[in-house]
TrEMBL record, chain A:
This is NADH-quinone oxidoreductase subunit D. It comes from Pseudonocardia humida. One of its GO terms (molecular function) is oxidoreductase activity. The gene is nuoD. Keywords: Cell membrane, Membrane, NAD, Oxidoreductase, Quinone, Translocase, Transport. InterPro entries: NADH_Q_OxRdtase_suD, NADH_UbQ_OxRdtase_49kDa_CS, NDH1_su_D/H, NiFe-Hase_large.
Length: 441, 297
């Protein structure tokens, strides 16, 4: 039996089984691939289904030997049309959509969106809600950075980093579940405040969490920071100096690793960040190792902010008093789970027709937002997360545009990896920390 | 963004006493209907257009200044897009839609031009900006309108000058807009004149100021020069805007689709992009697409 595959550089071996022929395809020798007619450049597709590409990111690499000559990223595999979907839901429902964009930092999406809506409305969330938002955002920042370290470690072969990172992230998710009701996709921050107040005993839980993280974060220094292999894989890899960052629009740890202490929390404080005492860690090496160290340092700073937020939290409302905006139902836990409080149901069903109408109108139709446009930005774990919201005066957004830091930062991938080794592409992408849910939206 | 709250509803006559103070009643249903009322100049011009003969084209007829010598008002003369005719059941007009058949979209709106003083750092910045433009020989009419709303300043600019304007904003030592935060599109609706807007958010890290540039486009001539040569970060933003809105950025190094598949037809975030209904198994019935469902707002 002649095998037509014989003329290929690396013939596939054939084996006859009861299920039919089975071919074993193996890689060929590099020398058999190149000959006089072809130069020694090959183009390979890395992804979209590749464990080292951080989700469904596809990299097209032109290689010369092991050197990357050109690199391009292809995105869109996780495009879900969230921005368009928001235009056909009311402003409150938008929260449940935007929280699914950057799924590692859902609270940031919610907060940036709600800050934008509140700016359009001209209202400000009550203080307790602001403090709670800060606390939740910093918790999420820790969780997001842990995933960055975990997946980055896994991609570079540091599997213990992965298991340790996900173990600690589990602590974050457990706490977020306790505080907001869900591990991810919380929809907890709402225009005007929060969906509801924290459950009883939250302060102890948060304090315990801080204690646990304080004891565990130093392990990362032992495990990774000083480890020779980790350093060799990251140091002087993925270099992007400050002018490159600004030209390519990179923000967040990438920008700060190039020496510019640019942090929205400091330069354009929102949610009362100006009251908190924390540092913005920076480095000047502008390489992957600097970004790694910044992320670890930022987690320590986040713990400081969380502690201060717990101390700052005073009793009070978590939603604006305006009944035209605030969700009418007071949620409570009943015997069959969480739902509208029985007291509220009794009132709207038995006593007040107007309350019933109001409840119905506000829930089905939403509140109208005066016409205009705003841009609201927060410092997400990956950089400047900006929401451009346009209202035509109705109860639905005319446009929700998200300036997602992952999307913008991913543009720096070619600048970081061209001319380097193919193995360093992985390190560079891991240090950009793109979340494809945010890139593709 | 420093001084929100200083909202200028200047429309050539004294702004109505702040009955649009948000938070008190600005979000109520009544107010939603009143946004078409006379206290909002933006809405007003739309409403006027509706009353005085609805034809499309009415709105965009009076266009930007052809001013080269600085005689036109600085605020600009860009007019509101023509309003859409909203109609309830039984031929009721002009009473606000209570039947829900009017569809989702409200009449198009255009923000009112701002008047001096703008407040905050805006005045100083506008002076510096005008001076820098003059130095580089960009006509003053290149800025069609200035709007200050909710503590943010927006410059509506002519597309011919967008690249040079961005270069000026980036390079002039008094301006220093080092970072282009985002470029995106907005579609104001199928029956609005010059419905496509390209929105640029620029950030000066030196002065910690943000501004917004906006280019207004006709949907049949959706071309705008690419600013990639000034801000390389605009590359993907412009590709996304092309992908989603069909705005062609002339001079872009590789204007291809980015989020949708390469062979996709149409531009999904345009308002007239068909959303598709859902067929149900009952006598050929279909759940209508969301933009054709009844809506009461």
């Amino acid at each position: 039996m002649t095998d037509i595959r014989d003329d290929s550089p690396a013939p596939a071996e054939e084996r006859i089984t009861t299920e039919g022929p089975v071919y074993t395809v193996t890689g060929g020798d590099w020398d058999t691939l190149i000959d006089a007619e072809h130069d020694d450049r090959i183009v390979i597709n890395m992804g979209p289904q590749h464990p080292s590409t951080h989700g469904v990111l596809r990299l097209v690499l032109e290689l010369e030997g092991e050197t990357v000559q050109q690199a391009r990223s292809v995105i869109g595999y996780l495009h879900t049309g969230i921005e368009k979907n928001c235009e056909y839901r009311n402003w409150t429902q938008g929260v449940t959509f935007v929280t699914r964009m950057d799924y590692l930092a859902p609270i940031f999406n919610e907060t940036a969106y709600c800050l934008g809506v509140e700016k359009l409305l001209g209202v400000e969330a009550p203080r307790r809600a602001q403090v709670a938002r800060v606390m939740l955002m910093e918790l999420t920042r820790i969780g997001s950075h842990l995933v960055c370290l975990a997946t980055g470690g896994m991609e570079l072969g540091a599997l213990t980093g992965m298991t340790a990172g996900f173990r600690e992230r589990e602590e974050v998710l457990h706490l977020l579940e306790f505080l907001t009701g869900l591990r991810m996709n919380h929809a907890y921050v709402r225009p005007g405040g929060l969906a509801q107040d924290f459950p009883e005993g939250w302060a102890e839980k948060v304090t315990d969490f801080v204690k646990v993280m304080r004891s565990r974060l130093p392990d990362y220094d032992k495990l990774l920071t000083g480890q020779p292999i980790w350093r060799q894989r990251l140091e002087n890899v993925g270099y992007l100096p400050l002018d490159g960052c600004l030209a390519l629009g990179a923000t967040g740890p990438i920008l700060r690793s190039a020496g510019l202490p640019w942090d929205q929390r400091k330069v354009e404080p929102y949610c009362g960040y100006e009251e908190y005492d924390f540092e913005v860690p920076t480095a000047t090496e502008a390489d992957c190792y600097a970004r790694y160290r910044l992320r670890v340092a930022e987690m320590h700073e986040s713990l400081k902010i969380i502690e201060q937020a717990v101390a700052k939290m005073e009793p009070g409302p978590v939603m604006v008093a305006d009944r035209k905006i605030a969700w009418p139902a007071q949620l409570t836990i009943g015997s069959d789970g969480m739902g509208n409080s029985l007291e509220h149901v009794r009132k709207i069903m038995g006593q007040s027709m107007e309350s019933l109408i109001h409840h119905f109108k506000l829930v089905t139709e939403g509140f109208a937002v005066p016409a205009g446009q705003v841009y609201s930005a927060v410092e997400s774990p990956r950089g400047e997360l900006g929401y451009h919201l346009v209202s035509d005066g109705g109860t639905r957004p005319l446009r929700v545009h998200v300036r997602d830091p992952s999307f913008v930062n991913l543009q720096t991938m070619p600048a970081m990896s061209e001319g380097g080794m193919v193995a360093d592409v992985i390190a560079a992408v891991a240090s950009i920390d793109p979340v494809m849910g945010g890139v593709d939206r | 963004m420093s001084d929100s709250g200083e909202r200028k509803t200047t429309d050539g006559r004294p702004a109505a006493p702040s009955d649009d103070t948000p938070g008190t009643e600005g979000t109520s249903k009544e107010s939603a209907e009143r946004t078409g009322g006379p206290h909002s100049s933006a809405q007003e011009s739309g409403a006027d257009a509706a009353e005085t003969g609805m034809g499309p084209g009415r709105g965009g007829e009076v266009e930007q200044t052809t001013d080269q010598d600085g005689t036109a008002p600085e605020g600009g003369t860009r007019t509101a897009p023509a309003a859409r005719d909203r109609q309830g059941m039984f031929g009721v007009r002009g009473s606000g839609d209570t039947s829900g058949f009017g569809g989702l979209r409200l009449p198009g709106y255009a923000p009112a031009p701002a008047e001096r003083p703008y407040g905050g750092w805006f005045d100083e910045f506008a002076d510096e900006f005008a001076e820098a433009l003059l130095e580089r020989g960009i006509p003053r009419g290149a800025v069609e309108q200035v709007t200050v709303d909710r503590g943010e300043i927006t410059f509506y600019v002519q597309r011919e000058h967008i690249v040079e304007m961005c270069r000026t904003l980036r390079d002039d030592p008094a301006l220093r807009y080092e970072l282009c935060s985002s470029v995106s599109g907005v579609d104001y609706g199928a029956d609005v004149d010059r419905r496509l807007h390209v929105v640029y958010h620029l950030l000066s890290m030196t002065f910690r100021r943000r501004i917004r540039l906006e280019v207004v486009l006709d949907v049949d001539d959706a071309h705008v020069p690419s600013i990639v040569e000034v801000y390389p970060t605009a590359d993907w933003h412009e590709r996304e805007t092309w992908d989603m809105f069909g705005v062609i950025f002339d001079g872009h190094p590789a204007l291809t689709r980015i989020l949708m598949p390469d062979d996709w037809e149409g531009h999904p975030q345009r308002k007239d992009y068909p959303l598709g209904g859902i067929p149900v198994e009952y006598k050929g019935a279909e759940i209508p697409p969301p933009d054709e469902r009844r809506a009461y707002s």
